[in-house]
Amino acid sequence: MGRCMFALAKNSRGYGTEFLIKGFIDDNALSLQAFENYPPILGPIDDYQVGEDDVFVCAVGDMKMKQTLCAKIEAKGGHFRTLIHKTAIVGQNTHLGEGCIVEEYAVINPDVSIGRNTLVQNFAVVGHDCKVGDFVRIDTHVTLVGGTIICDGATLHTNAVINHGVTIGSNVVVGAGSFVIRSVKPGMTVYGNPAKTLKF
Length: 200
Hints:
This protein is α/β, with parallel strands linked by helices.
């Protein structure tokens, strides 16, 4: 995912004028060995010393892991930059928290609030007046109908649709292709059309 974020960053608002790409922080020094034309690995996260002008993007899809890694950078005094691809649409009066990533052709409608370090993947639609928490993952082609509430740490997989006025609790997982018509309690996993709780 880091390589994808590299490509996204180069095509995001502010690249070349507000920020440049210094490199990757990765505990695996050989993670780019099979690939060409990428910036260097700067070292493992625990050893990295935050520079005065450094800003960060966390390219991790697992939201629990992302929280852990972001906390390590923040403890060193680091800050996260929000990336918005040039093709994304962000509506009037919309607030994006620090470290959000908004990918190609995503649409975020007016009067939306999105918390810190949330990922909105390509072609996702966030309807008007939605409230989205911190460390939320909104996968490609997900649709949040107007007025939905997505709490911290939720993961909404590809092509999920969250109906008007539904609240998705913290750390909920919504399966790919699901249509959620009722609010979901924290920590649950739901799947299907209409979405139902998965029992393990």
